[in-house]
Amino acid sequence: MTTSATPTQAVLQAACLAAGLDPTDAEPLRLAENAIWRLPRGVVVRIARPGQSAAATREVQVARWLAAQGVPAVRALDIRQPVAADGHPVTFWQELPPHEMGTVADVVALLKQLHALPKPDLPLGELDPFVRLVERIDAASTLSDADRQWLHGRLQDLKGQWASRPKRLPECVVHGDAWVGNVARTDAGPWLMDFERASFGPPEWDLVSTAVKLTTTGAVSTEEYAQFCETYGTDVTEWEGYELFAGARELRMSTYAAQHAATHPEWRREAQYRIDCLRGRAGVRPWRWKGIM
């Protein structure tokens, strides 16, 4: 690495020094809400946002618990972590073998394993489907004041419904953000990744992540979804709580795009389109939302 390090590189260098690792020749893999770097000799470094120490600690704890349970998931290095560097919690992981993004079938196979596990003695906390949404809405500077106000109102409405949500399946450890982008397909099979939102909660939340790709965005085919439901053993779209859960997931997807559109002009059109869809300006579902990042 050069001496003229970027702020992210400076955090990387400080964290590696604290962990006893060499950051020389580190390569950025993804620089977004969390910055992901690869070190030589098969180590991946994840730099989280300031204030996310509890989430980073939870990620490491969940990964070690899954390893003990024999679940194929990304493995945390056997060192004391997370490491704090310039206010950022930093974690260290074994690099996965060559892989590609997982499939819908991979997601459901891993969810079946995860949801069947006994409840661990870990301070995971209860699922909060609305975490950081206020911050996302406030950061969405490309939106009109009217749209931003509507999003805040929609958030409060969903929170009120969530407090008295219907219940069906027994609560368990949920991944919290279970989609194909958080599954890596290797020659040995799929691996689960990213435990930032792991918590105790309704398993339907994990299932809805795929269901909305059918009913909301059209990114999953009818055939793919039918196989997903057959494998898991239930179709969450037929449940009375689906509209609420799907609404929360749609709001997360839309505010994520709106937040990042503030610093990525190329995403502004997509962010506005998602808001227009939610506000009834773009016809009926399924809409065709494009991927962000």
Q: What's the arrangement of strands in the largest beta sheet? A: 1-2-3-5-4
Which architecture of the largest domain would the CATH scheme give at its second level? Alpha-Beta Complex
CATH fold call of the largest domain:
Aminoglycoside 3'-phosphotransferase, Chain: A, domain 2
How much is the average pLDDT?
94
Range of strand content: 5-15%
Main sheet overview:
5 strands, antiparallel
Count all strands and give the number.
10
Instruction: Say which CATH homologous superfamily of the largest domain is assigned.
Output: Aminoglycoside phosphotransferase (APH), C-terminal lobe
Backbone shape: globular
Order of helices and strands: HEEEHEEEHHHEEEEHHHH
Radius of gyration: 19 Å
The portion of residues assigned to helices is 40-55%
Q: Termini separation (Å)?
A: 25 Å
**What is the CATH class name of the largest domain?**
Alpha Beta
Number of domain modules: 2
Question: Which structural class matches the secondary elements?
Answer: alpha+beta
**Low-pLDDT sequence parts:** none
Summed up, the helix count is 9
